[in-house]
Predict the 3D structure of the following.
Amino acid sequence: MSRIRLAGRAAPTENDVSLTSLDHVILAVRDLAQAERQHRALFGLAPSWRGSHPHHGTANVLFRLENTYVELLAASGDGPLGSLVEAWVTASGDGPIGLAFATDDIGGCRELFEMRGLAPGPVEAGEGIDSATGAVRRWRRLALPLDRTRGVLLFPIQHDSPPDALPRARPDCDAGAAVHAIDHAVVHTTDAAAARRLYGEALGLRLAVDKEFQQWGVHLLFFRIAGITVEVAATLAGADAATALPGGHASGDADRLYGMSYRVRDIEAARSRLAAAGVDVSDVRAGRRPATRVVTVRSHACGVPTLLIEHESDRGHSRDGAA
């Protein structure tokens, strides 16, 4: 089949351009210093970066893990992104607001997403400045309208700075007791079919699981990218939403980035560390997936429903956290 042509040249296809990883997860917060303290206790890690985006009206704290990084983002001054964050936390409080996906070709990604109906804006250059060292990181990102992403902030990003410009977050404790990676991020949806089209067909993520679980009252779709799962959940008709999707269901037609699951190598050590730090944490129990054990974290997560998970394959494989 011949390739579609745009502007006199061959347009990209899914074989030419793809999202390569979950680059980072964004948590919108009102009090950045408090959110940093909470996540330092939650992760058992020192932050990788404390910085600002002067042209966007935001400040942030970053924790770089083995497979991605977590961004705590707060409004700081005037700017479009700062206004969005301020409006979000005013309406909904602290919580996860968006997912950024890495690409090696932001221009080709824009053309492909335009062909797929995501109505992307222009490619935007950005930079962040570390407040302690003055180091600068630069990137290019592609804004996608919220009405095309079902209310969740989703965008591709291409970093122009080397990966080590953002250092690995170093453990404050024994490495086995610290968070080392993201396992999955959870999105609530009001329409499983629409979410399947968005994450699978439009964004091009691999759909690994699409199944209704009557015993839990939920329809789950697992999209996988570079070893991380974006879990999309919808309440089944007739099910109790409060039970199937604890914390409440998204209203209207909008979806909501909802919960996080982080990996640790020693779940007992992680639980003991959290309890000693005053974090409200459950007992260790078997996970729903085979060969996993989990604990639920009920505080120090900026209101985000949070799970720590130990995979049997990870147990005992401690790392020192060096970048």
In short: Confidence is low (pLDDT under 50) at residues 1-9, 319-323. The radius of gyration is 19 Å. The domain at 5-165 is CATH 3.10.180.10 (2,3-Dihydroxybiphenyl 1,2-Dioxygenase; domain 1). The chain has two domains: 5-165, 175-311.
